[in-house]
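Record 1 of the preview.
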Amino acid sequence: MKLSMLLAGATLCALPGSVLAQASQEAEVGRGPNIVLLLADDLGYGDLGCYGSATHRTPHLDALAAGGMLFTNAYANAPNCAPTRAALMSGLYAPGTGIYTVNGASRGKAKNRRLIPIPNRTILDESIVTLAETLSDAGYATGHVGKWHLGADPCSQGFDVNVAGNKAGHPKSYHSPYSNPDLEDGPEGEYLTDRMAREASGFIEEHAEQPFFLQLAFFSVHTPIQGRADLVETYGEALGENKDAHYAAMVTALDEAVGQVLATLAEQDLLESTLVLFFSDNGGRSPWGDNGGLRGSKGMLYEGGIREPLIAHWPGKISAGARCEEPVIGLDLYPTLMELAGAPRRPDQVLDGVSIVPCLQGEDLGEREGLFWHFPAYLQGYLPEHGPFRATPVGVIRRGPWKLMEFFEDGRLELYNLGADSAESKNRAAEEPEVVADLHGRMRAWRERVNAPVPTEPNPEYEGR
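->
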């Protein structure tokens, strides 16, 4: 039987929310699900078939979505990778980790920066209790495969096994030899995404008899844009022998790797006891990533930089073909997985997200203060339309359909009604002063609550007016 048929067939019947509630209760007595977190890198909101792509072949992920729940308003915690990963592991907004961006906060030319940005951390502090540590304490075997980008070794942050993870933010090559000190080279020309799937499958096979948490953090589809030769050839017939064909090949190789992992779960008779989550760390990189018509791209706080694919699959617990329209954010996964695993919160442990178990049950999540982003840094542009910067210091809140952006350089406010204008084409700030005042007040209160530093010091090197 084809894997796509197996995945879809396992969840053909819509199940009541009480089934997932029962699973949460079972976790309290030590029968939590296995957890597989599949994390893509730089994947655009519209890069998958199930999210509207007419170009990329993604049958395994499409089947995963058809057999589970697809989220339409899921967000990364940042427009680039390290802060999103820090939030996933810590359950904290960026002010709680000090990781706001990648590398330094003073990106781009000094003469164009009006303000002195807030210093940026690049390593997740080991005093923070990570998701891996929490699940390990709950009796889970923990494995990390792929990109880490939060320090030298994920094994110092609660993982029992590490394959390929270190401080590097992207691979030197997608073909062996990899020049990765934490990954043994394979046969010459071996494709990195395929290798990650085999390593992940090996971890599943080795720990099939005990609860496990596997984070498979793909390097794909981050640069360098290097597709697998056979897939490049098939895409080249339609797209030409260029980067577009290589990028499309990378997306399909990612999909095939997901299929390999799912096949291993099926072979080990673990599909029905495993929650599989698929997510991306930030929006697609122009000009290759497809952000589904959303404004902006990787590195920007507009929707194209932060709205992501999110799929949840758990046969018998999550209804097949379900959709969740509720706004959720990456750091919500920590309390969600804690609840399902029956893992207790440590004394004084702070988690900024909320459990989305109600969403997985098909129920309303309930009112929340909002989703927040805090980016007190600069990120240089790489396309002419970006100008000097893709992002300047900015704070963002989304609450209901409304999204407010406060740009710290000049105090400019932009307001968008995402329910009516997901492309953020019309700034409604002047028309909706009451909405602006409400959201701005909530954002300032949140900044005070989490001690979010706002840059205010003028840059003496600034040459503009």
